[in-house]
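QA checklist item 7 of 12: single-chain prediction sanity check.
[x] sequence parsed
[x] length recorded as 299
[x] structure emitted
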Amino acid sequence: MMQKRIVPGTEIALSEIGLGCMSLVPDQDQNSRLLRAAYEGGINHFDTADLYEFGANEERVGMALKPFRKEVFLATKVGNEPSGTGRSWRWNPSKSYILKAVDKSLQRLQTDYIDLYQLHGGTIEDDMDEVVEAFELLKEEGKILHYGLSSIRPNVIHAYTHHANLLTNMLQYNMLDRRPEESVLPKLGHAGVGVLVRGALAKGFLLLINKSISLDINTKDADLLVDKLKLFSTEKRRLMHLALQWVLRRQEVTSAVVGVRTEDQLEDLLTFVHSPQWTDEALENLTKDLSPYFYTKHR
């Protein structure tokens, strides 16, 4: 059975593994089968964004979840305003835009409320008062139940934890990208903000199936980690389980959001509930010899 974790300060129980819906395909029957299978497999947390295919992804998610919408936790994002051509976007965290964008998301998602509305990025120059006013108004109107942040920037995260009633923050975190450990994870944990992780598999690198991705990390560290992973296994499912357990070992983490495109990928992901449990010591040993890795340009 899929384990669930409580979002700090609430009674909301999210599945340890959430489903990232960004990679859904135009075949709606396939999408509906995929999301139904995820739900029946114990996943109750589904994540999308209005930016993904400029709204088409929200439409696909909404259609697929409609039969069991009330049983799941639906998250989407806002802040990237499409151009008139629908081929580019600009950052727009204004109150007026957020209040306009939410109605479009609700329509595309075929729902009358969004469980979690996330600011999709953010800079320290944003008018945070406007952002918070917009989100709080949407809560009062019942259009959203909670709001959060989707950011890797420590200065933005620290500012919003002081400035807003955030439910969660989504950030990238994996064995090769441990930057959140420096200050962000402790800060969010202390503030009682749930952490949603994306990128736990490092775009397939940690499954030893995609070694060509550009990594902002010392090559020797990457090679050392690969050697350690091979001591555990070279089997993709087992390495997936290992990478997810490594992320979930942190008590600040509420859910790891993993993107899938096919039913075979989902089947692999759902085997996580039957995976062997590695000790904390074994998980820590995977990365303890790697170089410190800190945010630089995003500080």
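[x] summary fact logged: The radius of gyration is 19 Å.
[ ] second reviewer sign-off
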